[in-house]
């Protein structure tokens, strides 16, 4: 019998993470590379695995992530959101602790686009009285 993989998408700013989880030994791969190699900074690693640590499944699940866009921090946060959504899909009883920890809330802040005729998104040219 084939192992069941659970899929979820996590987004933050312009980073999009496609997360697949299945039962295993706790191995995490990101874009075909090892987790420690892809996120060399400890703080980023800690952010990305918060849902697994909260639910106590860090050593029980294999996580495979395909990620693109954004910077390192937004990528780590999109992985966190994707893992939390996948855990909730796998076991609906985990929704309450994940929701209380704030892992199921999408942070919708993105960079505002530049408007035509302006130097930036909101900046205006200097006002001249005469």
Helix percentage: 25-40%
Average of the residue pLDDT scores? 93
Pick out the low-confidence regions: none
Q: Rg, please?
A: 19 Å
* Biggest sheet, spatial arrangement of strands: 1-2-5-3-4
Q: State the total count of DSSP E strands.
A: 5
Q: SSE string, helix = H, strand = E?
A: EEEEHHHEHH
| End-to-end gap | 80 Å
Question: What do you see in this structure?
Answer:
- With 130 residues, the protein is an alpha+beta fold.
- Helix content is 32%, strand content 22%.
- It has five helices and five strands; from the N terminus they run ββββαααβαα.
- It has a five-stranded mixed beta sheet with strand order 1-2-5-3-4.
- Strand 1 and strand 2 form a beta hairpin.
SSE layout and pairing:
Blueprint: E1 6-12, E2 15-23, E3 28-30, E4 33-34, H1 35-38, H2 42-48, H3 50-55, E5 61-68, H4 72-90, H5 95-100
Parallel strand pairs: 3-5
Antiparallel strand pairs: 1-2, 2-5, 3-4
């Amino acid at each position: 019998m084939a192992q069941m993989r659970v899929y979820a998408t996590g987004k933050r700013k312009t980073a999009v993470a496609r997360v697949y989880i299945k039962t295993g030994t706790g191995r995490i791969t990101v874009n075909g590379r090892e987790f420690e190699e892809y996120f060399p900074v400890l703080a980023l690693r800690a952010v990305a695995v918060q849902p697994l640590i909260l639910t106590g499944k860090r050593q029980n699940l294999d996580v495979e992530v395909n990620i693109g866009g954004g910077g390192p921090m937004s990528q780590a946060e999109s992985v966190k959101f994707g893992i939390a959504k996948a855990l909730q899909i796998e076991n609906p009883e985990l929704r309450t602790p994940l929701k209380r920890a704030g892992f199921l809330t999408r942070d919708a802040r993105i960079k505002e686009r530049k408007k035509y005729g302006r130097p930036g998104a909101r900046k205006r040219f200097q006002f001249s009285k005469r």
